[in-house]
Automatic annotation (TrEMBL):
UniProt xrefs under InterPro entries: AB_hydrolase_fold, Peptidase_S9_cat
PANTHER family in the cross-refs: DIPEPTIDYL PEPTIDASE FAMILY MEMBER 6, SERINE PEPTIDASE S9 FAMILY MEMBER
Organism: Pleionea litopenaei
Domain Peptidase S9 prolyl oligopeptidase catalytic per the UniProt entry, residue ranges: 434-643
Pfam families reported in the protein's UniProt record: Peptidase_S9
MF term (GO), any: serine-type endopeptidase activity
Statement: the UniProt record of this protein carries the keyword Transferase: no
Taxonomic path: Bacteria, Pseudomonadati, Pseudomonadota, Gammaproteobacteria, Oceanospirillales
Protein name: Prolyl oligopeptidase family serine peptidase
Amino acid sequence: MRVLILILFLLVNTPPAFSTMSVDKFFTAPQLLTATVSPNGDLLAILELVDDKQVIYLQDTNTQKKVKWISIDEITEEEAAISRLVWLDNQHLAANLFEIKEGVKDLIDTKGEQSLLILKTPNKGNVKIYSVRSKGELVDSLPNTPNEFLYAKTGIQSKVYQLKINKLLEHGKRANKLTRVDGGQFVKSNEHTSIDGYVVEWFLELDKSIRYAALYNRDGTLDLVDVNNKEETKKLKSWNLKDLENAEQFIVPVARSAEPGSFYALDKAEENTRSVYLVNYDSNKQELIYQSDSFDIKQVITDPATNNLIGLRTIRNGLMHFEFIDSKNEELSKLKIESAISQDLSRINTLVYSESYNQVGQFDFYKGKKKQFTVGHRYPKYLNQSKAKLELGEIEVAGLNIPYLLTYPSSPKKKMPLVLLPHGGPIGVHDNPYFDHTSRFLNQLGYAVLRVNYRGSSGYTKEFEEAGALQWGDQILNDLHTVTEFIVKRPDIDSKRVCVVGMSYGGYAAMMLPIKHSEFYKCAVSIAGVSDVALQATSPYMTDRQFKWTKKYIGDVDNDYLALKAISPVYHFDKLKTPLLLIHGEEDHVVDVEHAYRSKLMLDKHNKRYDFTLVPEAGHSFSKLEQRHLMFNQTQKFLAKYL
């Protein structure tokens, strides 16, 4: 075995002693979600989560005085979320409001209605809110043009209008004989751009002109067109949406990039959208530039002054999440994110987001290169107390270099027990070296934690990701176990105290590894784990596209049933010698709770040692705090008992 180790220590000094934090103190809701700088740099609009409700705060960057602006429950009684904040000028902030009308748990694939609200900065405590009643979307804030913005309406003919804020009606107020909806502004004299057809996306140039549009046609095709010539549009690329179900890739543009003629694009053929591409349709070149470790990308966020990619709005753990990107170095080997996520028009006043394994996400305000103050943190700052060390390395397994992340308490007093923590997926997901609640929690309990980016993981190369196809119960498990065997040879690891804890596919691995290596693992925790691979491959919750993905990456039940049965833990529990904890959500629509029931049946049949917990109303992500607290309390007690 060829071994290549890259050791990177995060800490030099020993941190002060602290008491171990409880589960409910360690696992909290996020606090500061995102923030943005006003055009003149004097104000910050800050979106926070307070008692499970979104609140917008206003902070003066000169005095640092911070006041509440508005709470979401003061705007609507519906279940709702603010998904975007944009300054229109120094007095007005636009907020995209998403009101949930119908959907499933965890806010995944949720249907609802979007509306645009415009908040005026408070005057003696009074808050004025305007709204655009006509359905459409904000195209651009026009920050150099006070009181005006670009707004698009889509239909048989799609148009972009330049609207005035002071002509809009206040939110919630009805129009009367003396007023008109939206001030009667949707007229030809206010038209900025017009095109025949149903535009689903407008693409702005840096000078705020509209050069390109994505156009949906009645025949089910999508065209990317150049609208520079008003009399005749030029088609750059066309897609037939009927091909999406069977396409290996279906990469469509969603935002303009900083490079001339290029776009940021998403692959809609992915099981869940996690990959961002840079595409140039003139040269027919495309490059994978970023892969998210979240569940699904909902929006690409770019710097309006440069069109550089600065972040994503995603779904993570069932909830909306803002994922910020360090554009200077996007490789996983970088240990810290440091990204300018918002700037004023002068480019002097900057909001910077930073995050590392030992630092929760932090928002800092800078003037030039000098930090002025810390705006806030994504999670409670006290989580930074529990310092740990991080080592990155890779070893060769069956012809591939398999990366790993090993974290452990900074000052261990004796040999440490090891927890192997396989990520879910397994295809197209990865672990990164930034702040991670689960491994940090286990570190502060005294455990070393090993995370392995086995073949099939994203974040490296397409070839590495594709190497995980049809390897659920074979080479992926071999990658996990081989790296673990290598790590337990370290003098600071207790090789007789190794446990595997995982969720989803990680939960599958947590059951299967002790079956294959009965003397190696002393305990196992499977959370929402797949116990019957054939059952998972025929899940009633999957779409046709997901069935196709399953055949490619897991196996074809019709032709490979016996092979899938052979790699399913539920049929091999007679070989299990390791104590097992099973935790599953009763409302899991990704890995059905039937997997847990089948496991329980077979474990009882073979008189095996196990604990079994069903979590009422919990989906696959255990998105509610009380559900996550139950899950980690059970896990902590189980590890303490057997490890």
